[in-house]
Amino acid sequence: MTIDSLQKNDVISRWKNGQSIRAIAKDLQLGRHVVAGVVRQHLSQTQSTDPVSRPACFGEVRFTRKSKLDSFIDYVEKSLLTGRSFRNLDHLNEVARWWLSEVNDRRIHGTTKRTPLELHEEEKPRLLELPTIRFDTAQVIYRIVDSEGFINYANNRYSAPWRLLGQMLPVRILEDQLQIYNTHIELVATPTAINRWNES
């Protein structure tokens, strides 16, 4: 459905006055997706030049989070990367570690007026210790053992014990192998994973 420029202006005017997209669509007998498209187009055209293009009920538009992130990236680029060349990734990491400890951690932060090292020392007593047991992030999927005694994963077939034919079993996916468990969650097979990047 296409609408003319007068209807578009009416939509934007109503939207700026705080009327909802649903109400505008009902009043003008237009589809909500059409009204939303007009508003989206208006925002994309005016966002950089007219910061007051949103209804007052949405409040003031603030970009502090983005600008703080931009200023940090700018700081890293100017302080760490500008004027330096790196032989390889290991050399970049080595220089970055030096820069973090000798430059970044010792600078006085503009907002807190303290160095990151001072703030870290203050926070240290409140920090929790890391758990001693490694958190398990392995993916677990369920597969049915087919009539030939295989399960399918990532376009490959892996052997499972024949006595489990037709059963749906949990399979834990690790970096280099699969772990197949029976219905009592006992490990029954650990085939080597093939072609991990081809997962499906």
Task: Walk me through the structure.
The protein has 200 residues and is α+β, with helices and mostly antiparallel strands. It has 3 domains: 5-58; 66-126, no CATH class; 139-198, RNA polymerase II/Efflux pump adaptor protein, barrel-sandwich hybrid domain (OB fold (Dihydrolipoamide Acetyltransferase, E2P), Beta Barrel). The protein is built from 6 helices and 6 strands, in the order H-H-H-H-H-H-E-E-E-E-E-E. The protein has helices at 5-16, 21-28, 32-46, 64-81, 89-102, 116-123, and strands at 139-144, 150-153, 156-159, 168-173, 178-181, 187-189. The strands form 2 sheets. A 4-stranded antiparallel β-sheet has the order 1-4-5-6, with no helix packed on it. A two-stranded antiparallel ribbon has the order 2-3. Helix 1 crosses helix 3 and helix 2 (21-28) packs across helix 3. The two termini are 39 Å apart. Mean pLDDT is 81; it is low at 48-65.
Secondary structure layout plus pairing:
Layout: H1 5-16, H2 21-28, H3 32-46, H4 64-81, H5 89-102, H6 116-123, E1 139-144, E2 150-153, E3 156-159, E4 168-173, E5 178-181, E6 187-189
Antiparallel strand pairs: 1-4, 2-3, 4-5, 5-6
Helix pairs in contact: 1-3, 2-3
* N-end to C-end Cα span: 39 Å
Count of alpha/pi helices: 6
In this structure, how is the largest beta sheet organized?
4 strands, antiparallel
The chain-level mean pLDDT equals: 81
**Approximately how much beta-strand content do the residues carry?**
5-15%
Structural class: alpha+beta
How are the strands of the biggest sheet laid out side by side?
1-4-5-6
Number of strands: 6
Percent of residues in helical segments?
A: 25-40%
Q: Cα-atom Rg, whole angstroms? A: 29 Å
Helix and strand element order: HHHHHHEEEEEE
